[in-house]
Amino acid sequence: MDRQDDEGVTAFVRASYGRLLHEAFLLCGDAGRAEDLVQTTLAKTVVVWSRLQRSEGIDNYVQRTLINTYLSARRRRAWWEQPFSRLVERPHANKLPPSHCRSRTSRARRTTPTSDWT
């Protein structure tokens, strides 16, 4: 990337960052994720910047990349990352391990030199 491309990217980022951040927030509903989404989108845009300047489709590309990046992240999100409205696990009455496990652990600790604990 030459100096002229660098200046063009900088000007584009300054001009469109706020708008992209707002659009990303509307997509994901979280300010932190919106920032990550915009940064990923802009990183993908920088990679193809010289090609985009020739086609003059920078705004369209960035908009489509923002949406595709969001959708891709949603697809990758595993089921265990989805928030639940209720607690799935039941709390255990006894938080301690069974007594036979505790006695084995105690025995192992007594016979192991303290220098090996770390």
TrEMBL record:
Disordered, as annotated region: 91-118
Pfam families for the chain: Sigma70_r2 (PF04542)
Gene3D superfamilies on file: 1.10.1740.10
Superkingdom field: Bacteria
SUPFAM superfamilies in the record: Sigma2 domain of RNA polymerase sigma factors
InterPro entries linked to this entry: RNA_pol_sigma70_r2, RNA_pol_sigma_r2
Residue span(s) of domain RNA polymerase sigma-70 region: 13-79
Biased composition (Basic residues): 101-110
Protein name: RNA polymerase sigma-70 region 2 domain-containing protein
